[in-house]
Amino acid sequence: MTGLLRVGMVGAGAMGASHVRTLATWVPAARLCAVHDADSSRAEHVAAAAGAVAVGSAEELIDSGDVDAIVIASPDPMHAEQVLACIAAGKPVLCEKPLASDVELSRQVVEAEAAYVERHGRRLVQVGFMRRYDPAFVALRAHVAAGAIGTPRVVHCVHRNAASHSTATTEGIVVNSMIHELDHVPWLLDEPITAITVRVARDTSDGALGDPQVALLELASGTIATVEVFVNARYGYDVQCEVVGDDGTAGLTPPYGLTVRSPLASGGVCGVQVSSDFVQRFADAYRIELADWVAASLRGAVDGPGAREGHRANVVAAAGIESLRTGERVEVPAD
Amino acid sequence: MTGLLRVGMVGAGAMGASHVRTLATWVPAARLCAVHDADSSRAEHVAAAAGAVAVGSAEELIDSGDVDAIVIASPDPMHAEQVLACIAAGKPVLCEKPLASDVELSRQVVEAEAAYVERHGRRLVQVGFMRRYDPAFVALRAHVAAGAIGTPRVVHCVHRNAASHSTATTEGIVVNSMIHELDHVPWLLDEPITAITVRVARDTSDGALGDPQVALLELASGTIATVEVFVNARYGYDVQCEVVGDDGTAGLTPPYGLTVRSPLASGGVCGVQVSSDFVQRFADAYRIELADWVAASLRGAVDGPGAREGHRANVVAAAGIESLRTGERVEVPAD
Amino acid sequence: MTGLLRVGMVGAGAMGASHVRTLATWVPAARLCAVHDADSSRAEHVAAAAGAVAVGSAEELIDSGDVDAIVIASPDPMHAEQVLACIAAGKPVLCEKPLASDVELSRQVVEAEAAYVERHGRRLVQVGFMRRYDPAFVALRAHVAAGAIGTPRVVHCVHRNAASHSTATTEGIVVNSMIHELDHVPWLLDEPITAITVRVARDTSDGALGDPQVALLELASGTIATVEVFVNARYGYDVQCEVVGDDGTAGLTPPYGLTVRSPLASGGVCGVQVSSDFVQRFADAYRIELADWVAASLRGAVDGPGAREGHRANVVAAAGIESLRTGERVEVPAD
Amino acid sequence: MTGLLRVGMVGAGAMGASHVRTLATWVPAARLCAVHDADSSRAEHVAAAAGAVAVGSAEELIDSGDVDAIVIASPDPMHAEQVLACIAAGKPVLCEKPLASDVELSRQVVEAEAAYVERHGRRLVQVGFMRRYDPAFVALRAHVAAGAIGTPRVVHCVHRNAASHSTATTEGIVVNSMIHELDHVPWLLDEPITAITVRVARDTSDGALGDPQVALLELASGTIATVEVFVNARYGYDVQCEVVGDDGTAGLTPPYGLTVRSPLASGGVCGVQVSSDFVQRFADAYRIELADWVAASLRGAVDGPGAREGHRANVVAAAGIESLRTGERVEVPAD
Cβ D153–C221 below 8 Å, yes or no? Predict the structure, then answer.
């Protein structure tokens, strides 16, 4: 492999198109070569803008001799199968979260990659937990690790979207949204989640979306995290995280927009603008994630969260879904 | 009863002495006449400063013909008995929280007052849940009630003290500190707590104080509240509360001190000073609480949270303690 | 004089009526006895609510044997004459700012009080610079005086009202609004203003109100203060003050209302509510000011800002008005 | 010129080295080929890390056939001469601010470029006013231009560094630091500065550095800006900007670090960490500036602030220095 990574993109929706722009603008070491999407006109549109070719199937793209590495931003149910195809082709893959839509599938990915490592001595799979690349999350983790707040004891997470897709489901909120917290809380504290309780706030039991959800995560040391996920919070996209320790607390300073003082119909307000755009919120994280993944791929390595982390988040999510169903606290198996 | 309420103070510790100063400075309609404390020199000191007399026993003070109404700020285990004595004497009483140290005692108070109401047609007991008088809490409740955030679905509460008393116990954190949230969350939302889960964060099981604690409160509508109580948070006294609704959120703006920009050994900081003084934090609330209680007492009424509310908080606290012991979610009995 | 100060109120507009309520509710040592207003029905209304009598003229009220001390909240042009009448009657007076509408009148007050002090050995006049009683301003001054920010070098002041009265004038903004900064900046730093430059931002020169205004104040030590006064800022009443020193900065944390996160037509916002109500903003300051003034008056003393401070602010304001007219920096005479 | 811009770097100090890293990591369309620095070992170190060659003189680098375009990050007094050499060589140049150390030199640059444009029909010079590329400044300008705050009337700017270089001079604070505000205020409001008053706060007149400085800028419309520049503010690097309009205000939300709650020796604090690192503060701006400059250079265009803007800032700075010397308001000549 030379100093230039030829990348193929599977999925050309909002996320895929954003990755294409980021690669083209900010990642010198990558060249986007091929794009596939179930909607072929969308694939062609994105490919054309990037000077790449549209490819008719994911399999064809993954196996193409012109593609060194693959980014997967297709619908969730297709992730596992496509990652397995990348492993079969022996190519590095960056797969959007979740790694798979259920635990059995993510386990298959872990096992397939393990078999590959056995034979070839290197890993292939990275999962798109981009928060691990966000400068503020990175600083928070370093701050906690440096002992600046003493022993961490409690974590508070808030995760709000302005509005959910029409396809959102109650269980999907766990697997698709809360999965970020299920990954980053253990990463922040460097210890696994051992039990989870998830409840819908004001569940109407009439089939409506179970939103917002509140979870209590218990970690191996006994540290506890509260998590609110609210995918229809209306006012904007808002990700908060505070770690509370014996010697103080540390949390994200949200990268809000302008500070405004405005007269409103309801009176005046002084505050910050909150955008609804989650891609913009984590633009730095996506850029750094892609650049690091490209650099590591060129070295034949995977530096970011891998199949194991992706699978682990799925294991915790499955326990969370069981808790949602039963109303009980559910212990998370060690693996 | 004339336009001047002659008040007796039972308990002359920090809280009692603060109430004495507040009454003297800011409540024209009250005159402090008598002070009792188990430490008689403390009683004499506080009494002398206020132009009142020190009295040798709580009973004597309660029964004194010179005392129209009583404020109780004695140690928690003595509350119930002293409130019962006030009822027996037919005198209005403002008792610091908790109303009693267990559910059976608070139930006795409810029943004794009910018997008094039966005979005399008026109530006597108010419990010192002063947050209900804090202008910010009052504004928050009005904001929610006015529908400004739509249907409330989640509440987040944080309650931190700089340092606990040496006498603090794991269960005491529920009965003595979290009891504020157990009262004000139902008051904010106008609906009862129906289940509670309480866990110690990083319980060491070596007899050390179980602190901090995290609780999940479930309300009748399904609304969920998260509560963190941390009585050794070191950096200061910090009470936070945010209500999350379908159309936005609303929360307290903490009444912090000066905004400072300072060079520290660890780098610069821009922020607000946080005091450790919880009496100062709620000084407005205490002042308004006492003034309202005096005015209502002169009218022969009780306008604030009464024996029923004090008992209800104790019922929830007892369920919380059971949850602490068993690690399980505990449903709170209707009464 | 006994332990109860019989107070007469001159002026029963918004400010006067607010003072009446504050005295009645929170100042045990005062009893409002008499009220005068040019609008006699307003005087009667306010008097009746407070159990006082309405009096037909300010002179009659000031001279009344039932009145020990006077609060003046009448229109600005009447202040000086009424204060002079109080001095003539030998009675303590708390006069709303400004002490007088021009320098000659405030100098007369200083001289009249000096003559009274000569004969009677005590002062009589306090000026209603209530910011000196605001807990945040008091804390800021103490913080600076304690050396916590090192040598102060720059002060930034912002003073915004939601909307001005229809009677507002360009010069009146200096004498009536900016006068607060002209008093509190020297008080904060404990040194006089020696020069002032005032400019209207976007002066239209068509007779429209010269608003907002920006001033540069120079103090004896060379410390510089920037001041923005904007009496039609629309979004609310907002008073800001930051002192910048060699070792950091310290400023007011505005006592805003609830912290809200709201979806707006223009996107989401996270911030604090800003009220338009300046009386509410400084409610604590007014309460403490009145209580201190009543207590000092009962002792035959004046503890607050007096005629000299009121006159000094007028001297600086006159220089500010000259600067507005000439566009030049104007040195402020030593007296 | 092909799709790859071969860039030469003049100056390999902190700023130059940062630009080299940014180009290498984030600007695919640029390749750093040559580095010059007066300190040849520093040039070699930076060049080696970037796979470029060290060149013995700026002239040689500018004239080199391997260099398409030049970035100048040398000491200020060398800027103008080096830019003139770039114009003579007909190569695009991005010169760090200020464009020149005095007005005569910047005027020479304007004229030299004008002569080049006359002959060749394209511009060559861009000045490194990177704030124009900062996403927050860009959003602020768009917000104001969209009329969201109505007519702008006042601007407040604060510009603080943790500590100055030992070479800092009183006049240098204007030409080197305040020059940012002298450029971005007219850019934000789209109108020129017509008068300037600059004063040192607590000038000691003993030869010590005249720091902090406070300036009053008057713009063509009458809008007024206050500017505080404090290059020894100790607590960190802090750039603030608020525009006040008839319908509200809008300002930067500083991109601070973590939000911390910490116990300090002096009490608790809740706030954000402030870094001293000005390169980090504007990392996004530098990245976007370089990428845009590279893209425009490849098109034979200059899209950013050019020689005229650089010269204009110098003209205003010269007026500011005259104001510092005379203590008077100085009108800024139209050109």
Answer: no
Read off the tokens for B190: 């106008």
How many CB atoms are closer than 10 A to CB B133?
A: 22
The answer for residues whose C-beta is within 8 angstroms of residue B265's C-beta and 6 or more apart is none
Interface membership of A166 toward D (CB under 8 Å): no
Dist CA C279 CA C166 (whole Å): 19
Please name which of D186, D160, D145 lies closest in space to residue D281, comparing C-alpha atoms: D160
Answer yes or no: is pLDDT of B286 > 90.
yes
Ramachandran region, residue B186 (left: φ > 0; alpha: ψ -120 to 50; beta: rest): alpha
Whole-number mean pLDDT of chain A?
Answer: 95
**Surface of A (139-158) touching D: CB under 8 A:** 139-140, 143, 148-149
Q: What is the mean pLDDT of each run of 10 residues along chain D (335 residues)?
A: 86 96 92 97 95 96 98 97 98 97 96 98 98 97 96 98 92 96 98 97 83 98 98 96 96 88 88 92 96 97 97 98 95 88
CA distances from A140 to A132, C266, D281 (A): 10, 32, 17
CA distance B202 to chain A (A): 4
Please give the structure tokens belonging to residue C212: 């907002």
Q: How many CB pairs under 8 A join A and D?
A: 81
Instruction: List, for residues C154-200, the tens digit of each pLDDT value.
Output: 999 999 999 998 889 999 999 999 999 999 999 999 999 999 999 99
Residues B213 and B327: beta-carbon distance below 8 Å: no
The answer to whether B73 and B17 have CB atoms below 8 angstroms apart is no
Cβ of D248 under 8 Å from any chain A Cβ?
A: yes
Residue C334's pLDDT band (cuts 50, 70, 90):
confident
What ipTM was reported for this prediction? 0.94
Measured between alpha carbons, how far is A94 from A112 in angstroms, rounded to an integer?
Answer: 16
Q: Is the pLDDT of residue A1 over 70?
A: no
- Per the structure block, which two tokens stand in for D10? 């003049």
Burial class (CB in 10 A: 0-12, 13-18, 19+), C121: exposed
Test the D interface: residue of C202, C216, C253, C328 with most D CBs within 10 Å? C202
D246 touches A: beta carbon within 8 Å: no
Which region, left, alpha or beta, applies to residue D299 given φ > 0 means left and ψ of -120 to 50 means alpha?
alpha
Measured CA to CA, the distance from residue D125 to residue D113 in angstroms comes to: 7
D264 CB near a chain B CB, below 8 Å? yes
pLDDT for the residue B1: 41
CB of A335 within 8 Å of a chain D CB? The answer is: no
SS (H, E, C) chain B: CCCCEEEEEECCCHHHHHHHHHHHHHCCCEEEEEEECCCHHHHHHHHHHHCCEECCCHHHHHHCCCCCEEEECCCHHHHHHHHHHHHHHCCCEEECCCCCCCHHHHHHHHHHHHHHHHHHCCCCEEECCHHHHCHHHHHHHHHHHCCCCCCEEEEEEEEECCCCCCCCCHHHHHHHHHHHHHHHHHHHHCCCEEEEEEEECCCCCCCCCCCCEEEEEEECCCCEEEEEEECCCCCCCEEEEEEEECCEEEECCCCCCCEEEEEECCEEEEEEEECCCHHHHCHHHHHHHHHHHHHHHHCCCCCCCCHHHHHHHHHHHHHHHHHHHHCCCEECCCC
Q: Which of D233, D272, D276 lies closest to B269 in CB terms?
A: D272
Q: Is the minimum CB–CB distance between D196 and chain C shorter than 8 Å?
A: no
Kindly report, residue by residue over C25-75, the tens digit of the pLDDT.
899 899 999 999 999 999 999 999 999 999 999 999 999 999 999 999 999
The answer to whether the beta carbons of residues A79 and A99 sit under 8 Å apart is yes
What 3-state DSSP class applies to C326? helix
